[in-house]
């Protein structure tokens, strides 16, 4: 089980190593900055181990129109309420212990607090 940890808004660079290791191992940590898109309303959350400062899990959300397959259209009047979840990762040794669930919960609460009505993602199972 993980030790005490907190889920909080973090600066994207603190998540680069985890995101690279879990999602894009062929890229350098520096190249991870290219994936920090989403405008000024983007939010990056990290699950931080309170004893070590290690980033155990992360995810980001930003406003982005959903594809038509999940309810988005170019003319959608609700497009401002669409948010995309991306770059979600949990360190291998912390998977299956609720870390990702708590990060996802923080993302959902953030989106709801910003008036979001649809949270969508593309996903793969590691």
Automatic annotation (TrEMBL):
Q: Does the keyword Nuclease apply?
A: no
**Which keywords appear in this protein's UniProt record, sorted alphabetically?**
Transferase
What would be one Pfam family of this protein? Acetyltransf_1
One GO MF term on file is: acyltransferase activity, transferring groups other than amino-acyl groups
Per its UniProt record, what SUPFAM superfamilies does this chain match? Acyl-CoA N-acyltransferases (Nat)
- Domain N-acetyltransferase residues, every copy: 19-121
Is Transferase there in the keyword field? yes
Record protein name field: Acetyltransferase, GNAT family
Lineage of the species this protein comes from: unclassified sequences, metagenomes, ecological metagenomes
């Amino acid at each position: 089980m993980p030790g005490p940890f907190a889920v909080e808004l973090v600066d994207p660079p603190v998540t680069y190593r985890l995101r690279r290791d879990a999602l894009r191992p062929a890229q350098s940590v520096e190249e991870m900055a290219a994936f920090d898109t989403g405008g000024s309303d983007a939010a990056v959350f990290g699950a931080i181990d309170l004893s070590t400062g290690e980033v155990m899990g992360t995810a980001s959300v930003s406003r982005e129109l959903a594809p038509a397959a999940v309810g988005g259209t170019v003319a959608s009047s609700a497009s401002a309420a669409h948010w995309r979840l991306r770059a979600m990762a949990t360190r291998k040794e912390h998977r299956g212990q609720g870390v990702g669930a708590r990060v996802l919960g923080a993302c959902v609460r953030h989106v709801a607090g910003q008036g979001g009505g649809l949270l969508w993602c593309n996903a793969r199972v590691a």
